[in-house]
């Protein structure tokens, strides 16, 4: 009896491992696509753009934690449903609003004023 339980348990772990491998690889691909698109759109502010994108990744992790605790009430099955259906639907809906823009031909001095304002406001 315990042998069958161990076999069942190890097969579930293998399924979870496979799902994590697929999820990790897709997350890396998505992050790379976003980073490359933004580097092409903002060639003179690459450091600032990559820093903002990394900051959004940290904020997204905090938002997922709040959603898990407050909205999903610590339900693992609801979290899996959100991750498998909610995120792809959100990505597919948002891809129609995000378009590449023409790269700037030169660096404008007015761009730095916006970044100084955001640094002072912190």
From TrEMBL:
<feature type="transmembrane region" description="Helical">
    <location>
        <begin position="12"/>
        <end position="35"/>
    </location>
</feature>
<protein>
    <recommendedName>
        <fullName>Nodulin-like domain-containing protein</fullName>
    </recommendedName>
</protein>
<dbReference type="Pfam" id="PF06813">
    <property type="entry name" value="Nodulin-like"/>
</dbReference>
<keyword id="KW-0472">Membrane</keyword>
<feature type="signal peptide">
    <location>
        <begin position="1"/>
        <end position="23"/>
    </location>
</feature>
<keyword id="KW-1133">Transmembrane helix</keyword>
<feature type="transmembrane region" description="Helical">
    <location>
        <begin position="55"/>
        <end position="72"/>
    </location>
</feature>
<dbReference type="InterPro" id="IPR010658">
    <property type="entry name" value="Nodulin-like"/>
</dbReference>
<keyword id="KW-0732">Signal</keyword>
<feature type="transmembrane region" description="Helical">
    <location>
        <begin position="79"/>
        <end position="98"/>
    </location>
</feature>
<keyword id="KW-0812">Transmembrane</keyword>
<dbReference type="InterPro" id="IPR036259">
    <property type="entry name" value="MFS_trans_sf"/>
</dbReference>
<feature type="domain" description="Nodulin-like">
    <location>
        <begin position="13"/>
        <end position="119"/>
    </location>
</feature>
């Amino acid at each position: 009896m315990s042998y069958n339980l161990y076999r069942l348990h190890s097969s579930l772990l293998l399924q979870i491992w496979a799902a994590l491998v697929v999820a990790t690889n897709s997350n890396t691909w998505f992050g790379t696509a976003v980073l490359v698109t933004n580097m092409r759109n903002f060639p003179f502010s690459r450091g600032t753009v990559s820093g903002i994108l990394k900051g959004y990744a940290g904020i997204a992790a905090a938002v997922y934690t709040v959603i898990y605790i407050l909205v999903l009430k610590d339900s693992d099955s609801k979290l899996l449903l959100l991750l498998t259906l909610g995120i792809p639907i959100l990505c597919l809906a948002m891809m129609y609003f995000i378009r590449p823009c023409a790269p700037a031909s030169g660096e404008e001095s007015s761009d730095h004023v916006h970044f100084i304002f955001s640094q002072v406001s912190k």
